[in-house]
Design a protein that fits this description.
The protein is α/β, with parallel strands linked by helices. The chain has two domains: 171 residues, Rossmann fold; 208 residues, 3-Layer(aba) Sandwich (Rossmann fold). It has an eight-stranded mixed sheet with strand order 12-11-8-13-16-17-18-19, sandwiched between helices. A five-stranded parallel sheet has the order 2-1-3-4-5, with helices on both faces.
Length: 400
């Protein structure tokens, strides 16, 4: 993860920690948020200090830890600190604290901060699976949602008590992504976005195949950025070693034909289609069912063309807003614009393959009817956010 672009000042997060074993994860969450460019101040309940020390949290955040109402002379810590925050995050949020929020209680500093706030509140539940599934807890969580409080998680997994089930707090990296997402403009709320990412794999025999060096990083960053902006994202992915962004539906495929079929089944419901995947242009006409044994004789493979996913989607009678990608090794502007016009795309994203494949940063040029729009070299998630803002503007303009 990298810093946040385009903010006039550093956003301030007030991180509330309540008394659960998952409090140890809050230390990593603070580190990640500070790395993202946030200013973080921690507030802890008395019970939280039994699990992790205020000294640790102060060292990581660089800010004094708020522990009680009387840390300023006027006794107005709950007012001053909540007014200074751009968002309050409770992680972990115990069943007891969730009940307090649901019923408007304010019998300690942290609950008073939440009640006195005029900024968004995000809550990351963490508790035993039986406590999470208890009807009282579920009623309280529903009340939080009805009150406009964002509930992040929980996840299913192993718990400190030795049991397995729902109630485990989201991992710090997932929470950091969710917090960053909460600050992104929701330009695509209600939009269904379908996209492809990664390489495809075309079998030669039972163990060999034709593929390419695409890591899928750019596509997965775009999926995350689109989801941050409020889109409902379906990601059709070739074989990659990447974690699916939170809230994104992933459909895993191998070959170009599988990707083609998966996209066509869903294209009719999509508002926007983005073809990021590095789809193999050709496949073996007759792959062997068993491993082809090595010999000294030359071997010839008959290759046939794969379907052109992007061109076929763009040529539908009522196509979604289509965005293509062109990875070239030379003459980028010439070849990218040729591809855009040939496939009749409103927008095409170009980059030089030797600068992008496998790397964590990239440099993009956007090609549309208004000309070329270069984006500065940056990490792929930053570029994805800038790209999605451009796509949102073009999509809305096309609908007017």
């Amino acid at each position: 993860m990298r810093g946040i672009m385009g903010q006039a000042r550093r956003k301030r997060i007030l991180l509330g920690i309540t008394g659960g074993i998952a409090a140890y994860k809050a230390a990593e969450l603070v580190r990640l948020l500070v790395k993202q460019g946030f200013e973080v101040q921690v507030a802890m309940t008395e019970a939280a200090t039994q699990f992790i020390t205020p000294t640790t949290m102060q060292a990581l955040s660089g800010q004094p830890v708020l522990l009680n109402q009387w840390q300023d002379e006027a006794g107005m810590t709950h007012i001053h600190s909540s007014r200074a925050a751009d968002a309050i995050v409770i992680a972990p949020a115990t069943a007891d604290f969730i009940a307090k929020l649901a019923h408007g209680m304010a019998d300690d500093l942290l609950s008073a901060l939440c009640l006195a706030r005029d900024c968004p509140l995000l809550v990351a539940p963490a508790m035993n699976k039986q406590m999470w599934s208890n009807p009282a807890t579920q009623r309280n969580v529903q009340q939080l949602a009805a009150d406009g409080i964002a509930v992040l998680g929980p996840a299913c997994g192993s718990q400190a008590c030795g049991e397995e089930g729902m109630g485990r707090m989201l991992e710090p990296a997932e929470l950091a992504d969710e917090i960053v997402a909460s600050f992104q403009p929701k330009l695509l709320t209600g939009i269904k976005l379908l996209m492809t990412a990664g390489p495809t794999y075309e079998a030669i025999d039972a163990v060999r195949g034709i593929t390419n060096r695409s890591s899928g990083k750019m596509g997965y960053a775009i999926a995350q950025a689109a989801r941050e902006m409020g889109a409902q994202v379906t990601l059709v992915s070739g074989p990659v070693a990447l974690t699916t962004p939170v809230g994104v539906e992933r459909i895993s495929v191998n070959s170009a034909q599988e990707m083609y079929d998966a996209v066509n089944r869903r294209a009719g419901d999509a508002d926007i289609f983005i073809g990021v995947a590095a789809v193999a242009d050709y496949r073996v006409a007759h792959p062997a069912e068993q491993k082809i044994k090595k010999s000294a004789a030359p071997m010839t493979l008959e290759l046939v063309a794969n379907p052109d996913i992007l061109a076929d989607i763009a040529s539908l009678p009522n196509p979604p807003f289509c965005v293509g990608f062109a990875a070239e090794s030379e003459r980028l502007a010439e070849y990218a614009e040729q591809k855009r016009r040939a496939k009749k795309l409103p927008l095409l994203v170009g980059n030089l393959a030797q600068q992008a494949i496998g790397s964590d940063d990239n440099e993009l040029i956007l090609f549309d009817d208004n000309g070329n729009h270069p984006l500065p070299r940056a990490d792929k998630l930053t570029l994805a956010r800038l790209l999605m803002q451009h796509i949102a503007q073009r999509y809305k303009g096309a609908k007017l």
